[in-house]
Amino acid sequence: MSSGLEPPLWVAARALLPGPEAELALPLDGAVEEWVPPLLRRCRALLEGAGRPGGARALRRAGAVLRDGAWERLHAAPWREVGEGWRRAFAYGCLFSALGELAAGRPAAPALRLCDLGLLLGRDVLGGALRRLAGLLRHRHRPRRPPQKVHRDLAPVPVVPPEDEVPHLHCPSLEHFRDNYLIPQRPVVLEGIMDHWPCTKKWSVDYICEVAGCRTVPVELGSQYTDEDWSQQLMTVGDFIDRYIVGENGVGYLAQHQLFDQIPELKEDINIPDYCCLGEEDEDNITINAWFGPEGTISPLHQDPQQNFLAQVFGRKYIRLCSPQDSENVYPHESQMLHNTSQVDVEDPDLVKFPNFTKAAFQSCVLMPGQVLFIPVKYWHYVRSLDTSFSVSFWWS
Ligand SMILES: O=C(O)CCC(=O)C(=O)O
């Protein structure tokens, strides 16, 4: 089916999918409306002629109709009720419209955005086709200019009274960690355990921009998720860096559990802490989160249902912790949505409204690059970035 008119990027992209039409099974694995299967089959048929004049346009259009139709169904119900069939239909729509873009000789950026949308909201169909295509496009994408350097004065470091300081340990044995911290559920800062992770030497704002600048991700805007003006938006990592890390457009946080699946190159630079083997579940069930943002991002006092290792890659974070036994004293929100979040502003508490807050016993630390904080299950934690910061957390059970 080579036509000589095909741009090389399209040829490389097409080669990522199984060859002849007949081999391209497009399972949906879930209920969809009756218009979806014939449209899917049409996209598949159009793929064959997409390298010929007019073919690319038809594929782009058909893919976009599938994508837009599925997008509506993705947004018609609460997220957890959206069925597998619609998520896959959306992913196929993204894939076919991205391929249509490339077949038409258009630039890589819009196709890459479509791959990311498919990965974020859909599924990685056809054995990882979206991730493979995104990897190809990222290498063909014109590199972003590195972010402008800005000089900022270092923020003052909060004073942590020695009696409140979270204890520090250097590379404890598994048994020591288990008996003294995991079983009694006590927080501890672990040092030396991530020294060999490549991220500690490689990662910087420039590096993140180079590897992930052209990728679309969800970001949180506003200083903390309990604020009224807090919102979420999709943008490229490069735009996020320009606006919120380098620019002074307020506070934004790239706080994401899908980043490492979306960009495997970053995942290769981190390791799962050995201590996670003390958990009952296997490694595949560990959730790995990225936390990237400027100085001043705040995660309000909240608790999570799993054990956590919070690993600091660059920048420093001021962290305050208190035990679940103090839950009453930190005044959790009453609503179902925020019942794991305290109503109290930890660094400026309203003691008239929340008088028992003084009874809560806090421990604190300034988490430095290369340190890993163990936060036991349901331990309340408050986090404020003192610098532009990248942390990786591992939720395990
Ligand atoms: O680093 C942060 O801002 C929050 C980290 C956190 O809450 C977590 O890992 O559970």
CATH topology of the largest domain: Jelly Rolls
**Got a strand count?**
13
| Cα end-to-end separation | 51 Å
CATH class of the largest domain: Mainly Beta
- SS-based class: alpha+beta
Strand content: 15-25%
Question: Brief description of this entry?
Answer:
By secondary structure, the chain is an alpha+beta fold. It is built from twelve helices and 13 strands.
Overall description:
It is a single chain. With 397 residues, the chain is α+β, with helices and mostly antiparallel strands. It folds into two domains: 8-140, no CATH class; 162-396, Cupin (Jelly Rolls, Sandwich). The chain contains twelve helices and 13 strands. The protein has helices at 8-14, 36-48, 55-74, 84-103, 108-121, 125-140, 174-182, 199-202, 205-212, 237-246, 259-262, 264-267; strands at residues 168-170, 188-191, 216-221, 231-236, 252-256, 287-293, 298-302, 307-314, 317-322, 362-367, 371-375, 380-385, 389-396. The strands form two sheets. It has a nine-stranded mixed sheet. A four-stranded antiparallel sheet has the order 7-12-9-10, with no helix packed on it. Helix 2 (36-48) packs antiparallel against helix 3 and helix 4 runs antiparallel to helix 5. The radius of gyration is 24 Å and the shape is elongated. The N and C termini lie far apart (51 Å). Residues 1-7 have low confidence and may be disordered. Bound molecules: 2-oxoglutaric acid. The site of 2-oxoglutaric acid has 10 residues, from strand 6, strand 8, strand 12 and strand 13.
